[in-house]
Amino acid sequence: MLGRLLRPWRLWHVREGSCDITLEWHNRLPLFVIGLLLVLELALSSRAWLTLLLGFSCLLVIAGWWAWKLARGVRISREVRYHLVQAGDLLEERFRLTNTSFLPTMWVELRDHSDIPGYSASTVRTVGGQAEYRWVMRGECRQRGEYYLGPWEAITWDPFGLFAVVQRCRAYESLLVYPSIARQLPFPLPRGLTSGWAHISRRSQDPTVNVGGVRAYSPGDPRHQIHWPTTARRGRLYSKEFDQETGGDVWLVVDLNQGAHSGSGERSTEELAITVASSVAALMLDARRAVGLIAYGAQQLTVMPERGRGHLWKLLQGLARARSVPENPLERVLEGAARVMPTGSTALVITPALEPTWLPGLVRLQGQGVGTAAVLVDRDSFAAEEAPGADRADEDADTAWQQRRSRVEALRGLLADAGVSSEIIGADTPLVLRPPTGRLRRWEFKVLGTGRAIAVSTPWGE
Hints:
- The chain is of the alpha+beta class.
- It contains ten helices and 25 strands.
- It has a six-stranded antiparallel beta sheet with strand order 1-2-11-10-6-7, covered by helices on one side.
- Helix 7 (330-338) packs parallel to helix 8.
């Protein structure tokens, strides 16, 4: 019962779009004081009681009227400037605080409930009567993934702190942070097993030496890919389809078994494995190779091999959402991979698993004519980072580090015996990353002396 009495009273409410604006009465102490003064005035009539009664009554009326005006006139809006961001990029939001009332706000507190690591738009601002205030909030997107901007709420008060105007916006906006891409990798890129005229029945829009068929013309198809004989025969435009060469297909198999990973947040084997996968995909696509992806995490992701810059963002989108899950061993993933990889393709396994239980899966892939390679993410190097650095100088700590290193080398030796080339990458491996968003840059303008604005950078790098 007491909790209900102390709970704020909702005096007014309106919904505007996805936001609820309410006028709440929080501090009701003046109401009780007015009641007490009224009783004293009736029982013990005095000019002092009457003066206090009128004073507190005026204070309550002024505070309520002020808050009512603010409730009708104060609004906040937010807008994300760029929706395409990569890990390491800057997130930029624009805020606008408007006040159509002639009364100023003492303060406006913005409480942001976004879940982006290291970023919060919470702040305190103020705005005068019949005025507008704009500001920009920036923060670094430290880690790839799918996050949400919002929900949020803005609270302002009357000058006496009795009434609150609350604007609650329960809507949120999804923001996908793409993984980083390295300029170069400290190991050679995998090569296909076969070359020449070998082909498969899967069609592609990217030109190869083999024309496999035709399809209905789609807006944006190059003119030189139009098949004119079919177009003339059927009376409508048709475009060529091409067979993909198996020797150029590279499949990235990312291990997302939570039990195999080490570290947390940005400094973890999971993030390094994703960065390696995105970097290999970008470099292989730059070399006009077809790249596919298999990553069984929270969702079983399979992306068929394609070429081109557009396909890179499809791969990065899948890698951005990939999350490790428990009880998802790599050997089970390789069983599924064997059902989709054609003969002559190459499988590049990226894993921190040091147990050789997944090695038979690679051998089976070799048996069906699939080339194999592996990138071993040294999870012990991340575990060593968590230990105190001073202990590394001790003889026992140095021995433990040598033992951890020997585990990776032992697995690499087993892979070599099976004919699988492998490379090791760890927490201390230097990676020079491409600038955020890579070639897909933002709009940037330059104003000439004549007043004309020209684009010096576009999203397409032109």
